């Protein structure tokens, strides 16, 4: 599938195509794709069928027909066409009863004849009885080698005037006889050796030999190397019909008469050698580089790298310096390092990696997740492994070897100095010149300022360091929304109090029990239950009331008399919790007075509730009194969860519909069973991960059926009932892959971002009727994530069932009647909950849309990441109907951006751009603008008249353009074929086409919804799938996906449009990841101009057009960007996370739900923030 576009269209560079195809083979090999899947049973099947085939062919009446056909037919194609008719009555029954196709058995015979004498003899007999003889006008035999361009392949057949030629690895092409050159023996052998060398020098080939080099001495290596390399070489050996020793023997027989063949033989010998070159280095040896004098190489002096290969004909080593491109260096420039020197080189490289923005971003996310230093220390080693992996891989060692070397040299001064620097880089968060710990509690003291002196003695949380004011940003404990600044002189560490012994801890427990048994405690509980009917308000007030009761006891035992002191008590009890009875008593004390959150009288539907996260959601709701309908297409799993619920006294029934196929039956079943529906948890889904170059359209459509189309029908059926009863809670399960993209998950991410987008619109439209909608992105070990792990690390089904899913607390709270939050997007992992929102850099780029040099002005200003000095929150205004009202923009801390002088004119000469929807509206404006700057345009539009008019206007201005009229959903690949047939290439895709159908959710039909998703998402996926390999081969591509603000935060009446555009955002984020290293850059852009009519857009160039044009230009290096344009202002968007939103102990089971409720705020304070998407996209750049 990946190679299909190349079989059909012109190759600008066949050599690049061949290299790309070879790279694909190695990719498949890494994925354990079995090209040589013929085991013994399969060979027996071929032998048995051949025998029956020969038996039929030898019949006199059959051979009479064959002889007549040979006399009648001039070409092999004629012979085969007539043979199918004449011999069909004899052969069809045999092929049908064996379930075998002719092409399959021919290929198997060809592949196996070299390794199985019986099959070879059978196939020779079949060839005499069944085939015409020589193939085509060149009179070739099957198996002859021919050359086309720079590539050579094996002739397999001649049909319909074309030769079928197989090129390694396993790509078939149909070629005209006039395009082929028949190779002589010397040329054939050279080609065989060339492909053998390519496989031997691949990472897989040298990796197999390295494994043997490291585990054996030279004599043993020479004895075993052919066996070791056999598996890697198997696909090539099958292609050529000979083993590697035979290839080498054929080469050496011709080496005296051909310098080219002799050189290849020498390179193969070097690739198979135990040591490389005159320095007798082994592949993977670490060397120091010095004495390089060339301009392009002298920056490598003093650096270290690993030896990769020796090129005898050029007299150079291939060396791969850490973090650099491969270098080809003379032996005199290299010095082999011993293990200690190698360890220092690795340590130095890791230190540099840890200093990078990507690594610090990863560590910042970890710091944000961990509530304290102890938790951070537990998780740091795994993160360090991930951060160090590229460095260790570059030097050809593993983490265990590296640690062992560090332990072996504890007194080496240089290693210790670097280790100290690494410790600083990986600390929990020492900030400011005094090195206070970010996220830690300190005590405010000795404050003289009259407005702040009341804080003396109170505990504060360290948030950040303000360099300009020379003070720390802090917030009082329990009041994270109230921030102030204090200098380091007014902050001192809070000592962590502990119990001297278990007896002292037990005494504390006993006295605390006496307090809780007192009449004062009972009076407090009675008063709170009367004054605070809302369970959330009750839980918050309870914690403060219990603090007042505990203060004398805390003072008596030496603890602080505040919330920090209560936290210290919890930590002080931890060392004694091995005693189960002791731990149980303290847990009961911790839950004193807690009012349980119940769902009595509520009916909940959980789709995909038969296992994993869905199972956890169903069980917690049922345990708290809800009547639960457990939907799962696998009856056994749904029944099992229902049995678990009922065994614990809950109420639940199974429902077996497949959300992808029969979603219409689900809600009627709920209503028939329980007479109402209050809660929908849209959880059902699946994964089908593939990198985009091998992603098929059906991988998108199959996931859409479950995640998007199925849940649309479920929500659509439930909606009128929720609106009528003025109550409903919707929890849509999304994913970080939807928010930020993820490798291999362009399809899954698209579905999950579509759910996030339409969940936001449901929040807007449902709020007035009491229907609240929120989105949760859970992180946990489930069946889906388990399948992504390496096979040895995968959990069993039993282990998966036993895994706790703490994220169920978030879902349960959002489903509860006390929850007033709506339109929220939350990330939940273990005991950590983050609230997410879009943040806009409002001073990213400014320009005047009417300026003819607007493109150059934009290019001159465009920053790498943005400065984020003046920010706003674009969804806040839209969602101001919620509790908490509007969110103000952060204050400006820097002046406005200067409008720089435009530079040289930016041109698109020799670039070919496809613009979908290019005949009208915004697409037309983009087409005309790019053409005016020299681009060749393919104007795609289903309206032939408008497409033709746009092309005519472009040509009238001296530009080049062609019209293309395909519906991209029906034939998206045709748009790219038009570019290739007209201009021989494709460089830019601007996705403007849309099928917008605005309507409130209640009146949106499934046909409208699916039509929009298929057009905007699936149609553009088809275009991009056809364009992607072409861009990949050219190592250049710019993709701009035109989205909408309704994709980011929903919009009234734009349920369908927002979901469609949201799915494109996720696709764009994933393509940015996967394409970056090949210079294929992808960005998303939204504009207020999408509210203008086509007539308005055509009358005046939209201000977004120059910004789109810049994202298409080769000078633009932005990727994974999400931008919005209004007037003459480009804003960059990113997800901002409130890292201090809520934390709970994931080990306490269902009891943690009340802890979540007590911390929850309807409007997050964002006092401690991170930017999760930003570090994701920094990590690969």
What is the SS-derived class? alpha/beta
Oligomeric grouping of the chains: single chain
Count of alpha and pi helical runs: 43
Q: What's the CATH class of the domain at 603-837 and 1143-1170, please?
A: Alpha Beta
Uncertain runs with pLDDT below 50, 5 residues or more? 4-12, 30-40, 788-795, 886-902
Profile the largest sheet: 18 strands, mixed
Domain Ketoreductase: 602-781
Keywords: Oxidoreductase
Family: Belongs to the short-chain dehydrogenases/reductases (SDR) family.
Protein name: Ketoreductase domain-containing protein
Compact description:
The protein is of the alpha/beta class and 1181 residues long. Among the domains are: 13-32 and 44-58, no CATH class; 226-251, no CATH class; 279-337, SH3 type barrels (Roll), CATH 2.30.30; 431-495, SH3 type barrels; 502-591, no CATH class; 603-837 and 1143-1170, Rossmann fold; 911-1135, Rossmann fold, CATH 3.40.50. Helices cover 48% and strands 16% of the residues.
């Amino acid at each position: 599938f990946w190679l299909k576009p190349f079989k059909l269209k012109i190759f600008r560079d066949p050599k690049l195509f061949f290299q790309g195809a070879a790279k694909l083979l190695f990719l498949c090999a890494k994925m354990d794709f079995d090209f040589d899947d013929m085991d013994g049973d399969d060979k027996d099947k071929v032998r048995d069928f051949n025998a029956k085939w020969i038996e039929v062919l030898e019949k006199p009446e059959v051979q009479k027909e064959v002889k007549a056909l040979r006399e009648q037919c001039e070409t092999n194609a004629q012979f085969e066409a007539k043979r199918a008719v004449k011999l069909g009555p004899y052969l069809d029954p045999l092929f049908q009863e064996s379930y075998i196709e002719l092409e399959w058995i021919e290929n198997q015979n060809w592949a196996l004849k070299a390794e199985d004498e019986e099959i070879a003899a059978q196939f020779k007999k079949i060839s005499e009885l069944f085939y015409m003889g020589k193939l085509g006008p060149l009179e070739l035999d099957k198996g002859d080698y021919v050359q086309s361009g720079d590539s050579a392949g094996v002739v397999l057949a001649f049909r319909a005037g074309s030769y079928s030629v197989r090129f390694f690895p396993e790509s078939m092409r149909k070629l005209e006889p006039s395009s082929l050159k028949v190779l002589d023996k010397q040329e054939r052998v050279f080609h065989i050796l060339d492909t053998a060398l390519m496989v031997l020098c691949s990472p897989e080939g040298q990796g197999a030999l390295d494994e043997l080099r490291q585990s054996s001495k030279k004599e043993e290596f020479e004895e075993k190397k052919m066996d070791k390399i056999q598996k890697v070489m198997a696909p090539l050996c099958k292609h050529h019909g000979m083993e590697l020793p035979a290839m080498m023997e054929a080469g050496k027989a011709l080496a005296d008469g051909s310098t080219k063949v002799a050189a290849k033989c020498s390179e193969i010998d070097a690739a198979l050698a135990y040591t490389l070159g005159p320095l007798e280095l082994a592949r993977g040896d670490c060397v120091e580089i010095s004495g390089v004098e060339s301009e392009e190489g002298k920056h490598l002096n003093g650096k270290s790298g690993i030896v990769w290969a020796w090129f005898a004909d050029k007299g150079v080593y291939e060396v791969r310096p850490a973090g650099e491109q491969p270098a080809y260096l003379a032996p005199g420039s290299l010095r082999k390092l011993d293990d200690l020197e190698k360890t220092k080189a690795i340590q130095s490289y890791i230190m540099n990696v840890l200093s990078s923005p990507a690594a610090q971003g990863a560590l910042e996310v970890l710091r944000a997740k961990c509530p304290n230093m102890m938790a951070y220390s537990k998780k740091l080693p795994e993160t360090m492994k991930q951060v160090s992996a590229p460095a260790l891989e570059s030097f050809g060692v593993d983490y265990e070897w590296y640690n062992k070397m560090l332990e072996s040299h504890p007194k080496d001064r240089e290693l210790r100095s670097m280790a100290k620097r690494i410790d600083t880089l990986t600390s929990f968060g020492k900030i400011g010149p005094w090195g206070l710990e970010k996220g830690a509690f300190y005590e405010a003291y000795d404050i003289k300022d009259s407005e702040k002196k009341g804080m003396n003695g109170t505990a504060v949380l360290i948030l950040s360091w303000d360099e300009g004011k020379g003070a720390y940003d802090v917030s009082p404990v329990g009041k994270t929304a109230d921030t102030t600044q204090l200098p380091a002189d007014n902050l001192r560490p809070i000592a962590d109090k502990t119990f001297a012994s278990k007896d002292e801890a037990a005494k504390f427990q006993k006295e605390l029990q006496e307090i809780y048994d007192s009449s004062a405690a009972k009076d407090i509980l009675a008063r709170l239950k009367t004054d605070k009917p809302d369970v959330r308000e009750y839980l918050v007030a309870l914690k403060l009331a219990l603090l007042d009761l505990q203060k004398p006891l805390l003072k008596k035992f030496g603890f602080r008399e505040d919330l920090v002191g209560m936290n210290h008590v919890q930590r002080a009890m931890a060392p004694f919790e091995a005693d189960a009875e002791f731990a149980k008593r303290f847990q009961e004390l911790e839950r004193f007075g807690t009012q349980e959150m119940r769902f009595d009288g509520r009916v909940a539907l959980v789709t995909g509730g038969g296992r994993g996260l869905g199972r956890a959601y169903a069980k917690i709701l049922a345990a708290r009194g809800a009547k639960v309908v457990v939907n799962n297409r696998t009856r056994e799993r749904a029944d099992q969860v229902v049995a678990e619920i009922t065994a614990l006294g809950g109420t639940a029934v199974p429902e077996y519909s497949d959300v992808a196929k029969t979603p219409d039956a689900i809600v009627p079943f709920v209503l028939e069973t329980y007479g109402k529906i209050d809660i929908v948890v849209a959880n059902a889904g699946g994964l089908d991960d593939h990198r985009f170059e091998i992603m098929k359209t059906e991988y998108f459509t199959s996931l859409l059926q479950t995640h998007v189309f199925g849940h649309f029908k479920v929500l659509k059926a439930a909606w009128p009932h929720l609106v009528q009863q003025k109550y409903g809670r919707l929890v849509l399960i999304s994913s970080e892959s939807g928010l930020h993209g993820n490798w291999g998950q362009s399809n899954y991410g698209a579905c999950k971002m579509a759910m996030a987008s339409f969940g936001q619109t449901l929040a807007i439209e449902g709020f007035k009727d009491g229907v609240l909608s929120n989105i949760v992105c859970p992180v946990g070990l489930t069946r889906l994530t388990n399948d992504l792990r390496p096979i040895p690390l995968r959990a069993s089904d039993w282990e998966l069932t036993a895994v706790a899913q703490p994220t169920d607390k978030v879902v349960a709270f959002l489903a509860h009647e006390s929850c007033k939050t709506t339109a929220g997007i939350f990330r939940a992992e273990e005991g950590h909950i983050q609230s997410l929102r879009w943040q806009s850099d409002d001073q990213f780029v400014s320009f005047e849309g009417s300026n003819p040099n607007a493109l150059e002005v934009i290019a001159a200003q465009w920053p790498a990441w943005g400065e984020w000095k003046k920010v706003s929150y674009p969804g806040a205004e839209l969602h101001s109907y919620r509790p908490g009202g509007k969110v103000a923009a952060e204050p400006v801390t820097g002046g406005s951006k200067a409008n720089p002088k435009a530079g040289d004119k930016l041109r698109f000469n020799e670039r070919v751009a496809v613009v979908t929807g290019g005949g009208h509206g915004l697409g037309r404006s983009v087409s005309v603008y790019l053409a005016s700057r020299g681009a060749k345009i393919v104007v795609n539009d289903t309206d032939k008249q408008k497409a033709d008019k746009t092309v005519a206007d472009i040509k009238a201005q001296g530009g080049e353009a062609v019209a293309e009229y395909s519906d991209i959903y029906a034939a998206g690949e045709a748009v790219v074929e038009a570019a290739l047939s007209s201009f021989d290439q494709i460089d830019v895709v601007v996705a403007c086409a849309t099928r917008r159908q605005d309507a409130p959710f209640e009146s949106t039909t499934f046909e409208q919804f699916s039509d929009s998703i298929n057009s905007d998402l699936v149609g553009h996926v088809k275009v991009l799938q056809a364009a992607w390999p072409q861009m990949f081969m050219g190592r250049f591509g710019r993709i701009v996906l035109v989205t909408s603000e309704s994709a980011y935060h929903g919009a009234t009446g734009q349920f369908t449009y927002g979901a469609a555009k949201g799915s494109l955002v996720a696709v764009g984020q994933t393509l940015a990841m996967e394409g970056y290293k090949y210079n294929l850059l992808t960005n998303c852009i939204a504009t207020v101009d999408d509210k203008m009519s086509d007539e308005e857009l055509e009358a005046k160039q939209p201000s977004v057009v120059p910004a789109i044009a810049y994202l298409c230009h080769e000078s633009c290096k932005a990727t994974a960007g999400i931008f919005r344009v209004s007037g003459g202002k480009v804003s960059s968007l990113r997800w901002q996370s409130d890292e201090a939103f809520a934390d709970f102990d994931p080990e306490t089971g269902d009891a943690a739900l009340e802890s979540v409720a007590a911390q929850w705020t309807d409007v997050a304070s964002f006092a401690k923030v991170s930017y999760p998407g930003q570090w994701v996209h920094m990590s690969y750049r």
